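Whiteboard transcription, Tuesday session. T.W. wrote the structure tokens on the left side:
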């Protein structure tokens, strides 16, 4: 699995799905200042990367969650990737909104799965884990058994690890922050002096500021 993490880290940097700017940090929607910005939806635009992510997510499911009977993608980032995975595995598929629609049928879960299905959730990015676990909660309330979650990338924040533990959800990811930073350093994408900044941010992302 380590080789997969290295390979995906390199691919994400190559297509600029991950950007590292220690000296010119980004501002996330949460208001956090960050030296990294991740947009895994860009993987959908590159056929070879799209296929790589799809197949490796499928391998992760087959290896860790062979009991899965259906697939659910987390809106909006993992809608397409989840559908690709479900198609590859030949399983029923739905996607889960952050909250029910305020019009029409008022659905939060879009699609139809067999009653009581054992569901594997597909996510593109794990930060604090909040939005991902809301999808898990919605599926459970609808009567489905969530067997676990697979994701393309995680920042590996302790708050997320604790949240998944408390929710009783096993999480498997294809790559993570540490591997991206290591790959960036190896290829010269970032300078040696940037490493300290990147490590410092990782310790306390909510309070970090240049």
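and on the right, the sequence the group agreed on:
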């Amino acid at each position: 699995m380590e080789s997969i993490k290295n390979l995906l880290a390199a691919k994400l940097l190559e297509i600029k799905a991950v950007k590292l700017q220690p000296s010119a940090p980004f501002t996330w929607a949460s208001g956090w200042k960050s030296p990294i910005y991740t947009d895994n939806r860009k993987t959908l635009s590159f056929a070879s990367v799209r296929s790589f992510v799809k197949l490796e997510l499928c391998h992760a499911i087959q290896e860790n969650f062979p009991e899965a009977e259906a697939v659910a993608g987390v809106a909006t980032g993992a809608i397409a990737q989840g559908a690709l995975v479900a198609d590859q595995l030949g399983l029923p598929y739905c996607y889960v909104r952050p909250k029910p629609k305020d019009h029409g049928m008022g659905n939060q879960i879009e699609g139809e799965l067999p009653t009581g299905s054992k569901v594997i959730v597909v996510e593109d990015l794990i930060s604090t884990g909040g939005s991902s676990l809301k999808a898990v909660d919605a599926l459970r309330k609808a009567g489905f058994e969530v067997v676990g979650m697979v994701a393309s990338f995680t920042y590996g924040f302790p708050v997320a690890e604790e949240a998944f533990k408390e929710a009783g959800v096993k999480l498997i990811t294809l790559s993570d922050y540490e591997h991206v930073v290591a790959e960036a350093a190896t290829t010269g994408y970032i300078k040696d002096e940037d490493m300290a900044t990147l490590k410092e941010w990782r310790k306390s992302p909510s309070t970090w500021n240049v």
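Someone added at the bottom: The chain has a mean pLDDT of 93.
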